[in-house]
Structure to design on (834 residues):
């Protein structure tokens, strides 16, 4: 009986901006710098979904990777890929589209469905650029 | 007397869409698929600028990398980073913001100025995603 | 009128061995070392297909990346992925499954069909491991 | 007195398949998809071994990296590299050669010997492809 | 109220050697091998600084990445980049410049200042080469 | 009869500085910036050696990769790894240890011996950092 963690890497490319409607344009630029560009900017996001569980002797795994990949596509990358994170995604409405908030929102979208395919969601890791990434463990 | 090629890697993050104003919405989606999303999408672009020349014995180089990096920043990454390639960039006006066209436009912006710092532009290589890149050699 | 090169990266995972039926077991191990293991070994192959052409003003490209990716999948990665290169692949029969020969064979499979989607095949680059790769330009 | 974690990255290339002898061919393909190809497939596996300990003032380390690398080579990469994981490896007999099970088996092979060179094994991380990896912490 | 971890990646290139003044030359080479070369060797170090905190609704983050990057530059990469770790860096004096010790020293330099910009330092991860890295969590 | 190019990737870690003895300290810092630090700095160099030839039907290759790797180790990485490029390497004496010059010098060291193992040297590609590399084709 051994507890293992399996991670699946996926991608999506999206536009967004950081902008707080309650603030003046001046304050938005002061707080968010070039991320506040009104005409948007964008990223190639890289998403790592880590799931934990105990492998079954008959298969050698606890969650079928194809099922996991398929679930991530349906719930996350189809809704986010080639989209505008501020305008096009129901589960990101009414929040800043910061990498931190997007990672938390992805956790909420996946946590229940991952139980149904046989694992427990352990971590969402989201790269916004090669030099910056966020991790969320559901705490 | 040896001819060497030196390459500098830089980054910019931008929004764009593929859209032809002369076509119907239907035809745009048919031709460009999800790249035609009206609300934009975006990428972390990675740019490789290759310059050729003959190193001088006194320095061991023919182009100062700091000068090259500075030139790329002023002419390319400052105008493109955290911008909308379709709306915000004078030298990309009136063309599709395809990776192919952006690479050609970057070549034109850099080719004369690189001569002034002591090298000859050899190649612009532009990654739009991890899986797709374009090269342009000025031919 | 500008000639650009576009490259698409794809993957396949396969088993193979280097073995010459005309030679003794001893000579096979002498020539191919651990690559001659009779029970096979395998690799995650990474394939880069580079195509050249002149972008059209209306689209900004000369070959639709979706069509290129689809062609590579049908002709190359579907037949090779999760297969044994020595046993399972008709177009690799009767040759050593060296990285060099596989790259040449992939060129032959793709060169005519790439013309049909609007480009000219320029290079097949095939990584067998992170540290070794082969390029073939059709010469 | 500071507890640090040091990680060493190694590689091995191997063939395998997922197959349960108790099941019909049909059920094997249903469960394992293309991973059940009877003629095998293979991967470039990347292995990360993480060891923890308290560095000694005289050397600045607690485990000599050369000794760690040598141990991993003798116990793991020599037995697995250019081998068939289902057929050639005594410590993988009688189990599915899933990435999960291979990671657990590598832990068992290393955990005692790493104590002898001055550290405590903390994690085995095993990449099967660029997009999938497994971690095991001995729990 | 969600606890997230954000990581910033930075770089510095430096010379160093492993050498214990109390030991003979012979013992130094025995213990440190080629790392004891009296004329130094060097590395491209890659540094990952992970900070944890609870994002604020108004901004979507808890620590401004620009402030974090700026702090790392002032406290760590400016003092270390293009320097000799044994000779040029006040906060590395009187210790072995092992990757383990450098990671611990970087933690001590950053831990208090990161509190001032709104986060808690969680981990220093330092790559000395592509194949070796150290992590320190302040324990 | 097909001409293929095979590339082998190797590594070495070394110290160096850029410094012209004929110039004042002031001029050295003006020309070379932080690369002129008298106490040295260093890099993880990544070397790509590309060799061309026509594969033989019996083996599927024209140069044995083990022989190529062995040659590079004896002629290049053993003399350069964990060394000071300005002080320790006979074939780099009396020149600037710029990435350009080191690449040219590596070409000269390898070009004749590669003929003896069955190929023609085509390119030396040398990364000094992740963001800068040099290519030399013997022209």
């Amino acid at each position: 009986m051994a507890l293992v963690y399996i991670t699946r890497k996926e991608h999506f490319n999206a536009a967004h901006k950081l902008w707080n409607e309650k603030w003046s344009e001046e304050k938005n630029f002061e707080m968010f710098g070039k991320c506040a560009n009104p005409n948007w900017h964008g990223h190639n996001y890289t998403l790592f979904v880590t799931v934990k569980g105990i492998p079954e002797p008959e298969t050698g795994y606890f969650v079928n990777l194809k099922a996991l990949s398929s679930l991530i596509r349906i719930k996350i990358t189809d809704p986010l890929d080639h989209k505008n994170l501020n305008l096009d995604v129901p589960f990101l409405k009414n929040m800043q589209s910061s990498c931190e908030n997007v990672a938390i929102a992805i956790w909420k979208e996946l946590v229940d469905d991952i139980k149904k395919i046989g694992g427990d969601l352990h971590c969402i890791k989201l790269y916004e650029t090669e030099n910056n990434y966020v991790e969320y463990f559901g705490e």
